[in-house]
Amino acid sequence: MSRLAALLELMRPRQWVKNGFVLIGLVFGHAWRERALVEAALAATGAFCLASSAVYAFNDARDAAQDRGHPDKRGRPVARGAVSAGDAGILSVVLGVAALALALLASPAAAAIIAAYLGISYTYSLGLKRVPVLDVVVIAAGFMLRLLAGTLGVGIAPSAWLFACGFLLTLFLGFAKRRAEIARLAEDAGRHRAVLERYSLAFLDRATIACALGMSLAYAAYSLSSETARLHGTAGLAWTLPWVVLGTGRYLYRLHRRGGGGDPTEELLRDPLLAVAVAGWLATVLWLIG
Questions:
Q1: What are 53-92's pLDDT values in tens digits?
Q2: Where do the H-state alpha helices sit in 68-150?
Q3: When you count CB atoms within 10 A of the terminal residue's CB, does the N or C end of the chain come out lower?
Q4: How far apart are CA 208 and CA 28, in angstroms?
């Protein structure tokens, strides 16, 4: 049982909340009442859960030796010896194949998107993660593929506004993660993640602010536009903007004043006000659109 528990831990199910990005298309595409689309979107979401776990297992197998010297990562299953690197590699392959098979239940397009996600994620692990800025862009691209799977992958027309806001949001979170890592690891940052040697706090501060501002302005333009009002049958989406500002500001506060920002999932679990901002935004959107 302990071995099965270690394998499940290796899959990091707590991180599956990120795959909720796949379901956003159902809401903004007004498709939540169409059973076939909902089932396809759920299949695509499940496929991304399996695919992201495949990537986690692959990363942990490759980075086990380095992780053993990391203050947080040394407790991961491969690093602490609960799962061998070989078994983690096998699990990665099994999960990747299962993700593709499940995505096919949604559509061939969804399977192609999952294949693209696995391809760029494995390439990231093999080298792209060492290239400054590109490392964050690749992570953001993974989230854009999630949005694409929940729209084009299930037969919903994708929205340019949705992708613009989503891309800027994930860039913001990615640069914030790099800043949090440097602040957390100090002079040892480069030893634990090579790309951190090529970043500076000043650059990352500017990058996070620029992305946060760009995302907020893009969302404001979207929520206030007459085209959006016609699409959703309401001009009230502007009332969701305060939640976006609150959530963004709170995340920046935790990044600079509370040593947070390293993991969005953990931040949601640890900070009640941030969780309220996200829940408030979602509830307001559902109320207005639904």
A1: 999 999 999 888 887 877 778 888 888 888 899 999 999 9
A2: 77-80, 85-106, 108-126, 134-149
A3: N
A4: 26
Residue with tokens 């404001």: 220
Structure-block tokens of residue 236: 């009230």
Find the Cα–Cα–Cα–Cα dihedral 118, 119, 122, 123, rounded to 10°: -150
**H/E segment holding residue 185:** helix 160-185
In the chain, DSSP finds a helix count (H) and a strand count (E) of 14, 0
CA pair distance 22, 156, nearest whole angstrom: 12
Query: What is the fold, at CATH topology level, of the domain defined by 1-158?
Result: Tetracycline Repressor; domain 2 (1.10.357)
What is the structure's pLDDT at 284? 95
* Encoded amino acid at 234, one letter: T
What is the reported pLDDT for 186?
A: 65
pTM: 0.89
DSSP one-letter code for 82? S
Distance CA 170, CA 144 (A): 9
CA dist 91 and 187 (Å) reads 34
Q: What tokens were used for 161?
A: 């506004």
Q: Where do the structural domains in the chain lie, given as residue ranges?
A: 1-158, 159-290
